[in-house]
Amino acid sequence: MKKVTFLSVLTMFFATTLVFANVWLAAFGWVETNHNFGKIKQGKPVTAEFKFTNKGEAPLIIGKAYGSCGCTGVEYPKEPVMPGASGTIKATFNAAAAGSFNKTVTVESNAEGGAVTLNIQGEVIQ
């Protein structure tokens, strides 16, 4: 009987922990996740700023943010973003080659839902 009671209490403890663990997650609240530069001049880098707010209950920690190619540089907050606070991820496209482009920035963090993909696009003209 003691084993059954102990196992029941232990099971309820783990179930409660799993339920409340989801409440204490960090969560991105993005203003936008897509940016279209339109037509830009070749050789003039352009930067998109992706603004977000931590809508979760835990500090938001961005472990890594990177572009889909070497033509896109990324800046992101290195310090935790506290609940309710805001931050910005900057994606700079070098615009070296003429033509249309569609690039992504992957943001890896402790936020609910895992990695987030941001998109930049446009057309480089001579």
TrEMBL record:
Signal peptide (from-to): 1-21
UniProt keyword Signal present: yes
UniProt cross-references to InterPro entries, sorted A to Z: DUF1573, Ig-like_fold
Keywords of the record: Signal
The organism's place on the tree of life at top rank: Bacteria
Isomerase keyword on record: no
Annotated Pfam families: DUF1573
PANTHER family: LIPOPROTEIN-RELATED, SIGNAL PEPTIDE PROTEIN
Protein name, entry field: Putative iron-regulated membrane protein
Organism: Runella defluvii
